[in-house]
Amino acid sequence: MKLSNRIEEIFSHAVALQQSGRLRSSVYCIGRKVYILNQDHTALLRFRLRKTDKLEFDTPVSFNANDYDSQVVEQKGDKICFVQSAAGFKRVKSCRTPSLSPEEVEEMFKEYKVKLRNTVTLHSKMLGLLNEALSHIEFSCEDGEFKIVQRDIYSGSIIELKREKSGGLMEVKDDLEDFEPIGLRTNDFLALFTFIPTLQFSFLGDGFICVDSKDDKMPLRALISKCRYDELGGTK
């Protein structure tokens, strides 16, 4: 199976995030969907292939993101093989598949019946205002005002982001409801913008966030669980 450029782009992003330590994950492909699930199951991303992406995964495929290194992929039993050819040689890299199957990951995703509300659209240009060295970000809304907060638990300093009245690249729905602070790991938040620069965040209550792409060229939906500093949630 030779991958399309779009799928190769998704896989390459997953590898880069793994190697940078931002999103250690496994990749699962089934039908016309690609899922990325991080190691502790707090972030589950789904990409739908577009009509122009002719490739379809008739046989489900899964692998650890860091193993990917070739556009030609073969599934052989419980092994995934990445094939390269050069100078008259054929190189085959055989790797173990993740413990979960693509079918199990797809079912995990389907368990969440998402009804969008409390939506805020953010652009990657605001990422420069955050401190990547701080491990977590808080999102909250009080008296109709949405804000993003980072806290340095050692020095006591606080970074607070609010929308300026003059506009900017943040869009907040007029019917935004107040909600308690929801914690998210900084690396998980930054990782989402690797795939697409403009994302819609929906704060669903009970600590869950649904993230949708605003660009049809990269159809993405992500389910992110609550993460209150050392207390980690899970998508399952």
CATH uppermost class of the largest domain: Alpha Beta
Largest sheet: 9 strands, antiparallel
Reading the helices and strands in chain order gives HEEEEEEEHEEEEEEHEEEEE
Strand line-up in the sheet with most strands:
4-1-2-3-16-15-14-8-12
- The helical percent reads 10-25%
Secondary-structure content class: mainly beta
Q: Could you tell me how far the N terminus lies from the C terminus, measured between alpha carbons in angstroms?
A: 31 Å
What is the overall pLDDT average? 85
Query: What is the CATH superfamily label of the largest domain?
Result: DNA Polymerase III, subunit A, domain 2
Tell the overall outline: elongated
Instruction: List low-confidence stretches.
Output: 228-236
Strand content: 35-45%
Named at the architecture level, the CATH assignment of the largest domain is Roll
Question: What is the radius of gyration?
Answer: 19 Å
Structurally, the number of domains stands at 2
